[in-house]
Amino acid sequence: MSYSVGQVAGFAGVTVRTLHHYDGIGLLVPSERSHAGHRRYGDEDLDRLQQILFYRELGFPLDEVAALLDDPETDPRAHLRRQHELLTARIEKLQKMAAAVEHAMEARTMGINLTPEERFEVFGDKDPEEHAEEAERRWGGTEAYAESQRRAARYTKDDWKRMQAEVASWGERYDALMAAGEPATGERAMDMAEEHRQHIGQWFYDCSYEMHRGLGEMYMSDERFKEFYDSMRPGLAEHLRDAITANAARHEA
Prior knowledge:
Blueprint (H helix, E strand, L loop, with lengths): L2 E2 H8 L3 H9 L7 E2 L5 E3 L1 H15 L4 H8 L6 H32 L8 H8 L8 H8 L3 H10 L4 H23 L7 H17 L5 H13 L1 H8 L5 H17 L1
Helix pairs in contact: 1-2, 3-4, 6-9, 9-10, 10-13, 11-12, 11-13
């Protein structure tokens, strides 16, 4: 059985012009011609074309491909072994490249457009993207996450410093509130919880009371978030969770 140049081009995903070129340089000469002089390719031609395309994909120039395929001391199995080795090496290289790209993607997850010097100036030894992977896993497909990405990508060093100052001020005042023995269900604690919700809305995304309750639960269930709030004052994560719940209830009543 033989195939026309158009059929072979379709099988192999190459152009007819490419096949004509391969024929012209003697790299792939069709084994048959029709009565009208048209090229016809047999199974052995297709096997050779497959070998050519393998080597081309691996970056070999056409003259080297011809030399490899026409080497009388190399049988088809040797070509396959060589190609397998070359492909394996390429896969390993691509995997390393993919890992490097993934690392870069993770580093950009929160869209923080700061130089290393600016990041250190703003955040010190704290990684601003410490929770980025977790945030993307939990909310990556939501509009809130997309909006957070859009806003964060626009922030300058001064924006981040102002945000950090607001967080620090809020933490100091919440610490004082707890030191004074204010209950989580009291007005002052609920007001602080509301300020926390509005801070998220101002800087990242519109945070509904339902979403805020979910965040409060996460501050207790996820050790990384719990550690962040408890570093302001031991027990603050739980107190804030309860204040968030109470604040949501009073606004949704």
